[in-house]
Amino acid sequence: MMHSLAAAGSAEAVAGIVLADLALILAAAAALGKLAERLRQPAVIGEIVAGLALGPALLGLIPGATDLLLPVQARPYLQVLAQLGLVLFMFGVGYHFDLRGLRGSGRQVTAVSLTSVALPFVLGAGLAVALHPWFDTSQMSTDGLLGPVLFLGAAMSITAFPVLARIITERGLQKERIGNVALACAAIQDVLAWGILAAVVAVVHTEGGGAPLRMVLATAAFGLLLVRGVRPALAWLLSPGRRWAGSAALVHAVLVTGLLLSAWATQSIGLHAVFGAFAFGAVVPRRQIDATAPEVPERIEQTSLLLLPVFFTVTGLSVDLAGLGMRGFLMLLAVTAVACVGKFAGAAGAARLTGSDAREATALGVLLNTRGLTELVILNVGLGLGVLDTRLFTAMVFMALITTVMAGPLLRLTHPPAPRPPKTLPAVRPVPVTAATEQSEN
């Protein structure tokens, strides 16, 4: 009896700590998000910085501060909330990914997409080979080279589609050709990068003694089930002609249940949960949802945005800036240089070869070099797989932050907004002079 009461008291104490931590995380994210917007940066930049600041990178410089504010016993619960926010976010990414928008996108989009994935992948793989002697293999799940090489190549290839879309909208580029091309390229790159990452996961499990054939077959079966089973079933269930049509609560419950089950399925297969959430979001029938409850996907997205600061904070707990040392600092310089050169040269070079002028090609290279949140998702997958040590993980996180922060200023420099036409005053119509007017003047 006493043991049960003690356990209940301990659980209540941990619950109180978690609630206090959530308040701290959300307040810090909101404050720095607003500051980022005042500095003409996306709010997500401030939220990422807030998460990093609460970890060893900044707050950890004060002895015991991180452990006091984010106690060890609360971190597993924060990890669960972070994963929930992550899968909800990836559902939104999949939901907004529309292959129909890529039809007829042309030779340039295809060339830019493939080149700006292939070149960073090759450079990233080569960098992994060069840095391999500096890896702390005691923190990694494999002593081999293949897993880190493939993963670093995939991590260098990513473009943050959601952050890119926000930058394009804020700059008013969605109505210009450059904005449409950049979004189409980023969408294709995301599909390619996630496919490469799935292959990396399979390879790492193979090196660790896993069963790659079983994983491949299970993944194929899951994809087939989504396309041939889940999508038609949802189209029938959510059809506007059903008597329960228009129930936002039902649509909300169906979508959240489906994305959570899909995330669980890919996690069970051996892939990360983000793959299942993304795939489910990509196959749900948008037309039926838009006709019956269009506000539901937005609600799910708002919930994910509320929980993503927890994900940034959990990520920040693995970032150790003070532990970089000279080798880690050189790693940071190397991964940042390779990331920028690979993306910019791949995108801008392909754009020039397919007809863009220098100004447009430069702007496209700057836009596609944005990594942001999507890069952090991939890096957390790599850390969980054991293909990164803490030092390389820290360097890659700061590379993601640097490449996203520099996108806005470089875009203003290379692609300044068109000058607004001067306002013209309305013409003043002359007042007709009448006899009455002349008499009043006299």
Give structural attributes:
442 residues; disordered N terminus
Q: Element order, helices and strands?
A: HHHHHHHHHHHHHHHHHHH
- Into which percentage range does the β-strand content fall? under 5%
Unreliably modeled segments: 1-8, 435-442
Task: Classify the secondary structure makeup into a structural class.
Answer: mainly alpha
Give the distance, in angstroms, between the N- and C-terminal Cα atoms: 107 Å
How many beta-strand elements? 0
SSE order and pairing:
Blueprint: H1 2-38, H2 43-53, H3 65-69, H4 75-96, H5 106-131, H6 146-157, H7 161-170, H8 177-207, H9 212-237, H10 248-269, H11 273-283, H12 286-292, H13 295-316, H14 325-353, H15 358-368, H16 372-385, H17 390-405, H18 407-414, H19 435-441
Task: Give a summary of the structure in a few sentences.
By secondary structure, the protein is mainly alpha-helical.
Explain what you see.
The protein has 442 residues and is mainly alpha-helical. The chain contains 19 helices and no strands. The protein has helices spanning 2-38, 43-53, 65-69, 75-96, 106-131, 146-157, 161-170, 177-207, 212-237, 248-269, 273-283, 286-292, 295-316, 325-353, 358-368, 372-385, 390-405, 407-414, 435-441. Helix 6 (146-157) packs antiparallel against helix 8. The longest helix is centred in the N-terminal third of the chain and has 37 residues, at 2-38. The protein is globular, with a radius of gyration of 26 Å.
